[in-house]
Write a structure and sequence with these properties.
266 residues, 5-stranded parallel β-sheet
């Protein structure tokens, strides 16, 4: 999988250069807008938000999780994102690596003008989703606690905007309008129809695989982010009572704190 991903990235770079040269030197395009980083616990809606932002006329989605914060040469990768935005004919880009929630300081040090968007989702649904992929519910709920605690200290930072997956589903236009206002961008008609222009965000086919797990996971996600907006809330209700008790023991207090459980009533 890593070899295929590397091949795809090289192919992307080769394909974008002609567009970059035309847009940069013939049309005068430049990546002048502040960068956007989408972070949070995985399975919280970062891919969905990236697809929505990519449908905006001024924002280009970097088409893979770069994990550049953990690379040996992050500056070079950042410059390549500018190239991608120009090739797309847009003045700014958005990059999604959920695990970057653990290096927000580094993001803001490298790009002080950056806008960080933290996605939050009901930990029970996140744990259910991760279990569906890995078979490990405990891993899923522990990851939700760890990742969200890492980002929580930045919630009031002026360069950070926190949004909930559930709000995006329930009140799409209002939620996205608020997010775009934070980015100093205008809401545009058609953002909800992002799926009508197919985009590949993972190094796999966009066809729905027979199974969403294992080697098929990235292909499934590629198919998923090209579907219309759908409601993924409440899937945790299919957990067994023992599984619900496990989630409650690990994250019950935090779920109450975040407003997902009222008065410890499940």
């Amino acid at each position: 999988m890593h070899i295929q991903s590397a091949i795809r990235k090289r192919a992307l770079r080769a394909a974008l250069w002609p567009r970059y040269l035309v847009n940069r030197y013939m049309k005068g395009c430049a990546a002048t807008g502040p960068p956007i980083f989408l972070v949070g616990c995985g399975h919280s809606g970062t891919s969905l938000l990236l697809r929505v932002l990519d449908a905006h006329s001024r924002i280009a989605a970097v088409p893979y999780e770069t994990k550049f914060c953990f690379s040996e040469n992050p500056g070079s990768l950042l410059r390549s994102f500018d190239v991608w935005a120009i090739a797309e004919g847009k003045p700014r880009w958005a990059e999604k690596t959920p695990r970057h929630i653990h290096c927000i300081d580094k993001l803001l040090t490298m790009r002080p003008d950056a806008k960080i968007m933290i996605l939050i989702r009901d930990g029970r649904d996140v744990a259910w989703s991760i279990q569906s992929r890995t078979g490990d519910l405990r891993e899923g709920i522990n990851r939700w606690v760890e990742d969200n605690r890492a980002g929580q200290s930045y919630w009031n930072h002026p360069s950070v905007h926190v949004m909930r997956y559930e709000d995006m589903i329930e009140s799409f236009e209002a939620t996205i309008s608020t997010a775009l206002s934070f980015l100093s961008e205008e809401f545009e008609e058609g953002l909800r129809e992002y799926h009508k222009v197919h985009k590949s965000l993972y190094p796999r086919s966009m066809k729905r695989p027979t199974s969403p797990v294992g080697a098929n996971h990235e292909q499934y996600r590629n198919w998923q982010v090209n579907q219309p907006l759908f409601d993924g809330r409440g899937r945790w209700k299919s957990l067994t009572e023992d599984e619900k008790d496990l989630v409650k023991r690990i994250a019950g207090d935090m779920l109450i704190e975040y407003g997902y459980v009222a008065n410890d009533t499940w």
